[in-house]
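Example 3.2
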Amino acid sequence: MKKRMLLTAFALATLTLGHTAMAADTAASAPQIKDVKGGAAVVRGSGTITAIDTANRVVTIKGDRGNVFDLTVGPDAKNFDQLKTGDRVNAEYRRSIALALKKGGDGIRADVESSATTSAAAGEQPGGAAVRRQTIVANVISVDKKHSTIRVKGPKDHIVDVKVEDPQVMKDVKKGDQIVAVLTDALAISVTPAK
């Protein structure tokens, strides 16, 4: 039976990336994740193209709040030649995190990543999208019911202590169970011609 839990991006990043000091299996070295929440986050931004370096495929964008940054446009992006100074660039970034408890897991930890990209067809207004999905399987190596925490070991041997907010999940989780986490990142960019 699967129970839904959610973790912060920090906990999942620690499992996959972490630091070598986190690999030690001691209470003193395991990071503490508190007030665990989850779900999805959306960041939107827009700006105006102020300069274009066609030789290096670099576009300078001034954001609506006055920030200026350079964006390198990869060779897969079609219609780069249609970009003009004054065009509006709109971007939306979404990240969602979901976590499920897998009872009596097989002990095999995993970190699997897949991605897909798309860009506007030749002749259309420039734009595109990219999606990256990462599935992580981590082992529950200890359960502290008194403090409502579990210790999990990720695919790269990084260990994290996670506070469990759901009392039913805390009641059901046992050493040897697994956590299956799915992180999804999506980015969409569109360009509107200058008026």
